[in-house]
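User: Now give one protein:

AI:
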Amino acid sequence: MPRGVKKRDLPAKTCATCGRPFVWRKKWDKVWDEVRYCSDRCRAAKGRPKS
C-alpha cells in the first residue's frame, strides 16, 4: 500500500508577488491559511514592483 499523498492532490495557492502557483508543504501545516508567498525571495520582494 503506498504511503503519503500525491502532489497533484495537495492544496495549492498563487504567490502574491510572482503569481506562480505553489503547493502545500509539511512545514506550513499549522499556518497554511496565513501563507501568501512561495519563497523567502518573494516575501522579501513584496514591496518592490516587478521588473
Observations:
- Residues 17 and 46 are 6 Å apart (CA to CA).
- The longest strand covers residues 12-14.
- The beta strands are 12-14, 21-23.
